[in-house]
């Protein structure tokens, strides 16, 4: 439940070993590569490596050939690929040329088959025309037209019986059209074409052929069968070739992809200008040190060193969170605010517990909570892969739990009365109108308001203690002890709240002079002088303000703001109790409208009302609970300026984009 501890790995060696080092380090998901040039103050002796990637050309050539051939490549490892670089290049050239040849042949044969099929389709409708096409097309004094007429137009041809050229030789027909041929002398063809066009004649271009349409159709059919046989033979040859080469091709592609990505990462390394020596640096989790040591020991010609993060104070390690699975969904909220600094505590467990509880209290309903949980898990997370879905699914369970305590099931406030009656009989626990917590009772409402403020006070105090712990961990003792969110603020805020509570509600006279002076006034003075006191503790020589008058004026206004922030932060938690009452009030409105509808309308109104309120309240409660986390708690102990841990492989993928 913390930020993963990191070690800085630096490697120096011959440039000839750079690819092997990158391959060793970047094959693990536990290596964060830093820009090597940033490790040198004087960069004049070093240069970045920006060589052209030799793997890109061959990777693109082979992958493009496979894609064009529409073949599938198995995801296989290249660990047993017994080929050197020259053999790989020859393999890429040969295989891509072979696949390109198959693709060209496939395209050519497909085109010929389609052309042949189209021609057959044309001749099919004119097989009843018993004249040789080659002789007809050679006629010098007449023109012949092949085409089709709508059946209605064909029947109108009788209207032109006085014109000897308006005659169609029908060949075939269906429900809509009649296919046929008409002919006319050259000097009359334009007039005849105009008349047939007015009858919606559709001319069809018949391909050149020898013999009758039926003979041409049979010839084309044989030709198409021959082409199809060639296509099938070519397809079998390609399938046999791919069956034999699929695994090896996959290994070569994996090899090229891996080495291309590693070569792209060279830009993160540095080379000494006067020799063939490289420098590489990155971060690895402490738990992975032994793994990297074993791998690097196998490489000759390199030197490496692991250093603790504290040994490199000028370098900020990347942040990788490690939380139990139950807390991991709430890392989403932390990442929205910002990753913790490497020296900060991970607030995820704190967020998981507090957000889970606050959400459940403000949205307390068994039925709606379970529905929300199912929708969030199966639709938002499983279907849409939304990170928010996992956390909301857990919060829905919290709503169901608190819904039991408040006795609400889809707004039915008496649904759990039998259950609580049974609990009362077994334990003797007191009930209020048949429920453990009756939000419709005025006395309960006042108690809920006080309880909400009490929850806020406790959470604010915990946030202050977390700040003290974090600042001590970062050796920022001035902030830890003297700031408004440090130990002084904790004592002042806690003593004030506890004193007022004891005086007004418990009848304990705590606000005595010693109590006020020691636990309220002195901490307030310490907060007022927090800045110079922090500088004094840090060992600054000129810690006392030079212009004391300006210091007093400025800090008086800041102190007023601090006091107001304590009040506003505390009052802000009233929303927790308010949303409990809002839920009950909105459901009362729904049931009032349902009773007015009556009959089937009653249940329709109840179902629709529950759906609308569930969506509306889930949104509002989610936002308000998150606001309490960010503004009332996070702002006290969390900066969120950490940089994320990114594995070298993910960096390589980003470079591709």
Uncertain segments = none
**End-to-end distance, in Å?**
34 Å
Count of extended strands: 12
Count of alpha/pi helices: 22
State the helical fraction: 55-70%
Average pLDDT level: 87
The multimeric state of the shown protein is single chain
Percent of residues in beta strands?
Answer: 5-15%
Instruction: Work out the radius of gyration.
Output: 41 Å
Structural class: alpha+beta
Shape type: flat
Largest sheet, in brief, is: 6 strands, antiparallel
Q: What structural keywords apply?
A:
657 residues; alpha+beta; Alpha-Beta Plaits; six-stranded antiparallel beta sheet; four-stranded antiparallel beta sheet; 22 helices; 12 strands
3D architecture notes:
It is a single chain. The protein is α+β, with helices and mostly antiparallel strands. Among the domains are: 128-211, Alpha-Beta Plaits; 325-438 and 572-637, no CATH class. 60% of the residues lie in helices and 10% in strands. Strands 2, 3, 4, 9, 10 and 11 form a 6-stranded antiparallel beta sheet that branches. It has a 4-stranded antiparallel beta sheet with strand order 6-7-5-8. Strands 1-12 form a two-stranded antiparallel ribbon. Helix 2 (54-68) runs parallel beside helix 3 (85-124), helix 10 packs across helix 12 (387-406) and helix 14 (442-473) runs antiparallel to helix 20. The radius of gyration is 41 Å and the shape is flat.
């Amino acid at each position: 439940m913390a930020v993963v501890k990191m070690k800085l790995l630096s490697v120096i060696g011959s440039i000839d070993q750079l690819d092997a080092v990158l391959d060793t380090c970047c094959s693990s998901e536990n290596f964060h590569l830093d820009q090597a040039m940033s490790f040198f103050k004087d960069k004049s002796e070093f240069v970045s490596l920006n060589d052209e990637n030799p793997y890109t050309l061959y990777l693109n050539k082979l992958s493009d050939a496979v894609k064009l051939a529409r073949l599938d490549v198995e995801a296989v490892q290249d660990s047993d690929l017994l080929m050197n670089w020259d053999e790989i290049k020859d393999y890429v050239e040969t295989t891509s040329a072979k696949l390109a040849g198959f693709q060209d042949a496939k395209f050519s044969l497909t085109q010929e088959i389609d052309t042949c099929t189209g021609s057959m389709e044309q001749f099919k409708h004119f097989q009843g025309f018993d004249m040789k096409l080659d002789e007809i097309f050679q006629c010098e004094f007449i023109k012949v037209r092949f085409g089709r007429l709508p059946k209605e137009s064909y029947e109108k041809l009788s209207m032109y019986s006085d014109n000897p050229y308006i005659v169609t030789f029908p060949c075939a027909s269906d429900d809509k059209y009649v296919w046929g041929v008409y002919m006319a002398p050259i000097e009359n063809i334009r007039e005849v074409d105009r008349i047939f066009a007015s009858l919606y004649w559709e001319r069809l271009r018949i391909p050149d052929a020898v013999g009758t349409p039926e003979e041409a159709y049979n010839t084309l059919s044989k030709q198409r069968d021959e082409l199809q046989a060639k296509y099938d033979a070519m397809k079998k040859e390609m399938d046999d070739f791919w069956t034999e080469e699929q695994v090896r091709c996959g290994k070569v592609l994996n090899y090229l992809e891996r080495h291309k990505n590693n070569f792209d990462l060279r830009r993160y390394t540095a080379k000494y200008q006067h020799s063939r020596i490289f420098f590489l640096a990155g971060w690895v989790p402490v738990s992975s040190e032994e793994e990297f040591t074993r791998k690097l020991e196998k490489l000759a010609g390199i030197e490496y060193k692991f250093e603790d993060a504290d040994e490199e104070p000028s370098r900020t390690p990347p942040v990788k969170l490690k939380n139990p699975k139950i807390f991991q969904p709430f890392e989403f909220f932390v990442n929205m605010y910002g990753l913790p600094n490497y020296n900060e505590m991970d607030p995820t467990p704190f967020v998981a517990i507090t957000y889970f509880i606050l959400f459940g209290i403000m949205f307390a309903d068994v039925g709606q909570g379970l529905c929300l949980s199912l929708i969030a898990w199966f639709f938002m997370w499983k279907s849409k892969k939304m990170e928010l879905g996992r956390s909301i699914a857990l919060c829905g369970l919290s709503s169901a739990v608190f819904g039991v305590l408040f006795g609400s099931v889809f707004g039915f406030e008496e649904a759990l009365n039998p259950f609580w009656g049974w609990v009362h009989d077994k334990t003797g626990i007191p009930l209020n109108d048949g429920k453990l917590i009756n939000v419709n009772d005025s006395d309960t409402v006042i108690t809920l308001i006080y309880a909400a403020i009490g929850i806020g006070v406790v959470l604010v105090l915990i946030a202050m203690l977390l700040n003290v712990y974090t600042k001590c961990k970062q050796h920022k003792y001035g902030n830890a002890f003297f700031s408004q969110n440090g130990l002084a603020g904790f004592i002042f805020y806690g003593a004030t709240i506890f004193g007022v509570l004891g005086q007004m509600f418990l009848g304990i006279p705590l606000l005595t002079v010693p109590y006020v002076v020691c636990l309220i006034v002195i901490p307030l003075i310490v907060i007022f002088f927090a800045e110079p006191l922090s500088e004094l503790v840090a060992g600054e020589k000129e810690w006392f303000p030079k212009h004391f008058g300006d210091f007093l004026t400025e800090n008086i206004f800041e102190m007023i703001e601090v006091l107001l922030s304590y009040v506003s932060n505390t009052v802000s938690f009233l929303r927790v109790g308010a949303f409990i009452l809002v839920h009950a009030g909105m459901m009362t409105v729904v049931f009032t409208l349902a009773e007015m509808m009556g009959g089937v309308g009653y249940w329709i109104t109840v179902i629709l009302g529950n759906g609308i309120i569930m969506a509306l309240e889930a949104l509002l409660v989610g936002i308000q609970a998150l606001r309490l986390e960010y503004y009332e708690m996070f702002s006290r102990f969390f900066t969120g300026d950490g940089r994320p841990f990114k594995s070298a492989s993910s960096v390589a993928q980003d470079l591709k984009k």
